[in-house]
Amino acid sequence: MKKVLRLIFALFALMVTTSIVSAQDMGIITGKKKGTYYQFGLNLAELGKSRGIKLKVFDSAGSVENVFAVYKTPGTQLGIVQSDVLAFVAKVGSDPVLKRIAARIKMVFPLYNEEVHLLAHKEITDFDDLADKTVAIGEEGSGIYLTARVLFEVSDVKPREMLPVGPEEALALLKQGKIDAMFYVAGFPVKLFTEDVTAADGLALIPITNKSILEFYPSAQIPSNTYGWQDQAISTVTAKAVLISYDFRGGNCENVGKFGKILHENLEWLRVNGHPKWKSVDLNASLKGWEQYDCVKKVIQTTQRRAPEKPQAVNPVIDAIKKMFSE
User: Fold this and answer.
1) Where are the beta strands (DSSP E) in 76-199?
2) Torsion-angle region of 123 (φ positive above 0: left; ψ -120 to 50: alpha; else: beta)
3) CA atoms within 13 A on the CB side of 1
4) 8 A C-beta contact, residue 31 and residue 143
5) Distances (CA, A) of 104 to 81, 112, 251, 300, 323
6) Considering the domain boundaries, does residue 133 fall inside one?
7) Is residue 63 part of a domain?
8) Bigger pLDDT: 43 or 102?
9) Measured at the alpha carbon of residue 287, what is the angle toward residues 284 and 291, in degrees to the nearest 5?
10) Residue 326 lies in a domain
11) pLDDT-derived band of residue 230, with 50, 70 and 90 as boundaries?
12) Residue 310 lies in a domain
């Protein structure tokens, strides 16, 4: 009986010790709840939970808001943004505070390509047809907004009106015939278009083949039947989603480094259990204009240098339990 009680006490001590050592509260700011950013956040939270990390997932209007959030919002050490957000802040943005913050935003890992979805009434057949049309470009500060602005700037196509509304409101306006087209920048399949668009709506994805745009953004394709109402492959362009942090020192640096290590070592789990876009993630891909967070880089490099046969340190509580059974 005494041995059983000692075993119960030892197991309780092990649970408490593990909880104290590994439990952490972190946060990640993503995007709209029907978008791919948010789904990626949920996948990372599930992965973190299995490793003793409580990762809270926050939705947001998008990339520009997320740059602010990782700097100023307590408990939000991670964010997901579009790769062109820094270029937008530097070239188009006018907020000096945002410019200073953006200068210290660091990449944790590159993630996946985000295809530009241009949804419109079927009489519009190409991006250039948006001249003198009313187009929803996402809420101001969102990744959709910044990419749409850059697309029009680069192409010199001038719409009649650029309406700064989010995807859900834009889709409702498009179905009602109050606007001509809308942008959504996200990795396919986009949940909003899967669940809330049907063939009966008379809408179509529109190709983006403007030569000036293709000189600025990489080309991409949305395969046929990505959505039930879309029977042809669509040529478009892409930005890349990036997992970011601020250039923190101290505890946040250490925590983000630990989480980066967990992600790096469990990418295959995410490919099997997470959003389909995890299958296209290359954590080692180079990304022009971005510098990897040193707090992540050093942890990854240390892991890669470590010999795989190196014995792990023995947990003293587990060792004590083993000794009890050997008595």
Assistant:
1) 78-82, 105-121, 134-136, 161-163, 181-186
2) alpha
3) 0
4) yes
5) 14, 22, 17, 21, 51
6) yes
7) yes
8) 43
9) 90
10) no
11) very high
12) no
Per-residue confidence (pLDDT) for residue 32, from 0 to 100: 85
3-class DSSP string for 12-46: HHHHHHHHHHHCEEEEEECCCCCCHHHHHHHHHHH
In DSSP notation, 41-77 reads: HHHHHHHHHTTTEEEEEE--S-HHHHHHHHHHSTT--
Q: Which residue has the tokens 């039947």?
A: 225
Token couple for 292: 């990897």
pLDDT averaged over the chain?
A: 85
Token pair, residue 82, equals 């579009």
Minimum mean pLDDT range among 2-11, 204-213, 236-245: 2-11
Whole-number pLDDT of residue 192: 93
Number of domains the chain is built from: 1
Kindly report the length of the chain. Answer: 327
According to DSSP, the β-strands at 78-82 and 24-29 are: parallel
Q: How confident is the model at residue 170 (pLDDT cuts 50, 70, 90)?
A: very high
Structure-block tokens of residue 259: 């989480």
* CATH code assigned at 173: 3.40.190.10
Percent of the chain past pLDDT 70, that is, above it, reads 84
Q: Specify whether the CB–CB gap between 121 and 202 falls below 8 A.
A: yes
DSSP label of 218: -
> Side chain identity at 284, as an amino acid letter?
N
3-state secondary structure 254-312: HHHHHHHHHHHHCHHHHHHHCCHHHHHCCCCCCCCCCCECHHHHHHHHHHHHCCCCCCC
Determine the structural domain holding residue 297 and report its residue range. Answer: 2-305
